[in-house]
Amino acid sequence: MHLDLVTIVVPDYDEAVGFFGDVLGFEVVEDVPATTNDGRPKRWVVVRPPGGGTGFLLARADGPRRAARVGDQTGGRVTYFLRVDDFGAAYERLVGAGIELVGPVREEPYGTLQVFRDPFGNLWDLLAG
User: Which CATH superfamily is domain 73-129 in?
Assistant: First the structure.
């Protein structure tokens, strides 16, 4: 058993694909037309880190209730934890892309840590170690 996908609500498919691909280096493994439960068009877009692992289903916010959840899926807590082998390279990639860093780099018992905010408002931990 393994956790295959986690949904992240985003305002726009293409913007999200750009962030996950260009900034985080994820791969788009699926991007196909689909329909909502009531027959409206949508896309089934899945991104995964290089080499596989748990992926994200990019779910475009559909309506005001879901739009209100973009960037606040966990009430302002860090939502996602991205563990990397090369902290320096990943950090520079975030800085180069203009991603908002929240606080300084920290050393914690579980590794080197930098909190950052994605373009949609979600908080992430960049972790190494």
Answer: 2,3-Dihydroxybiphenyl 1,2-Dioxygenase, domain 1 (3.10.180.10)
- Phi then psi dihedrals of residue 111, to 5 deg: 135, 180
**Which residue has tokens 């579980």?**
110
73 pLDDT tier (thresholds 50, 70, 90)? confident
Indicate whether this model's pTM tops 0.90. yes
| Nearest to 38, CA basis, from 17, 10, 63 | 63
Q: What would the two tokens of residue 12 be? A: 């726009």
CA 11/CA 67 separation, integer angstroms? 7
Mean pLDDT of 102-121: 97
pLDDT of residue 94: 97
Q: Which two tokens stand for residue 75?
A: 């009430």
The bridge status of strand 27-35 relative to strand 41-48 is antiparallel
What number does CATH give the domain 1-70? 3.10.180.10
Residue 13 near residue 60 (C-beta atoms within 8 A): yes
